[in-house]
């Protein structure tokens, strides 16, 4: 059953009527979004195009490595050093003008590179493109939300477009994400385009012009983006721009606690692994006979892998700790870099780099998930810290890995038929060892499940469950009570607990027991008020800890005023939900440490635990479908949340099988009732003899709350 008195539809939810607005008003938003994507394509195309161009005139492996690494480092350098300055500039001038200037100048700069055809200018161009990009990026990030917000005053245009697409009350939040996707999304496409252009150039233009075509394509992307931006009449300056200084943030990061530093270390390790792979990629693929096309293929793998990893990070292995996953992802990225360094086959290198990308992307998104403080309104700063770590480490990797590789030179290892350990391989191995160490230290620092062995934890997560070692199962404190029996019914949404609890109570009353049926939350007067707060969808921004404490407060009142008095007079208490709901929902569902929730609740209840907990198991999708009334605040959580709750309940049941009766809720009701009755019989103080179901001589004492 779902009690709906405390629920009502979300007032801020987009209303159906909003979609009937004139389509033309969304045009500026769409046009700008396209302009940003095309410009993003240009930016991501410039990375391989300029680094490949830099390699061409260089002589010898060392010089080629330094030229490619130098171009990459110079592209990133402005983001590390000049980003706040460029941000301040972008904030002063018109957003649209900033975008136009950046695109137009990048067009000119890139176009001149093949015409001048000299390494110093190629490197200078990389630096200039980097500078213009740090002017462009914050203006791009601020423009879409400004357009969305500007037009959402009357719920028109971009506002509706975004609100409809994201079902979000504030169209700016959706527009911000759209902007991020427009800027970063084209990266894998750009790498693929680069690879294809390299193939075409090889076939059509011959060796002397190989690097020209991708550069011209980059220039075209910038000029098209500029033209599209010019068509957008006006971008309001409603979104302020402020870009934090990466080095400053990094410095402040040293004042973080142990876990914060662990996080920086982990994300730095992932960035080092990915950065090292990119730094030597052009020369490495050249040696394997792949040339620019191979370079493009490896970068496509990496970029697609990164995108996939970013998507996967928060989703994969639901019940597994994100902190542990973060450490493991960094270690995986480092190990893949080792394979990358040692393998001499281009196809394998491309695949391994793609997996490295997945690991690095997953590490980043896990880091971002860990850093997101559920109690903080604005979670931009911790993310900015992670971004700074990534940028600075990538810069160091681009500059240092090729330099170290060049300095080490090539060595022949004579083991059997001889193995050439070249400089880039050795430099990659050094980077991999550093990343591995960072991952291992970060894993230990961040571990939020200390003492819980990794392998069973992972194995349980693969089965969709949370591993609870027997030693950590919640130990009920012994409670003195005379004759009473306490039975709780637990399960996810729509499992049919309420019905089964009621049937069990009727059966017990039929056999003459004094039975109290009750429920959580909201069985007492105070509890009803807490319930309204907890389940009303109007309750927004309730922090996870406050939610846990409110449920615990409701439970404390429930135990003190209803359950304990009943047990003390010898009654049987049948409760629809009890403490395990908090462990499953607030612990596993909200990803709060289960031990903490257990401790708070042990205090709230004085250690009172049920004699029997009946867990009705149902897949969340089926359970949620069974609900007829509008979803309350908890029911409206996404399906992953409910999957974690289910896994949590199962883990609790596994950890304490004597207290639990786990039943598949999809079975027929009568069968379930019978099984429940058999089990209840075992714990009754004065057992009901089997076969007495039809006895009519009993006189039930009915006491309901
Ligand atoms: P309710 O309407 O009683 O639903 P159900 O029929 O599913 O029991 O709502 C109770 C909701 O509160 C339910 O979604 C589970 C949630 N809940 C917690 O998150 N923690 C808790 O400790 C308890 C008791 C309930």
How does this model look, in words?
Helix 1 (27-55) runs parallel beside helix 7. This protein has 25 helices and 7 strands. The chain folds into 3 domains: 26-153 and 168-243, Up-down Bundle (Growth Hormone, Chain: A), CATH 1.20.1250.20; 247-467, Growth Hormone, Chain: A (Up-down Bundle); 485-704, 3-Layer(aba) Sandwich (Rossmann fold), CATH 3.40.50.300. The model is unreliable at 1-25, 152-169 and 691-705 (pLDDT under 50). It is elongated and about 100 Å long. The strands form 2 sheets. It has a 5-stranded parallel sheet with strand order 4-5-3-6-7, with helices on both faces. Strands 1-2 form a two-stranded antiparallel sheet. The chain has 705 residues and is mainly alpha-helical. Helix content is 65%, strand content 5%. The chain has helices at 27-55, 60-81, 83-92, 95-116, 119-152, 157-166, 171-184, 186-204, 212-231, 246-253, 258-287, 291-312, 322-342, 346-371, 380-408, 423-446, 454-462, 497-510, 525-535, 544-568, 579-589, 594-605, 620-626, 639-655, 669-683, and strands at residues 411-413, 419-421, 485-491, 515-519, 572-576, 612-617, 660-664. The site of thymidine-5'-diphosphate has 18 residues, from helix 21.
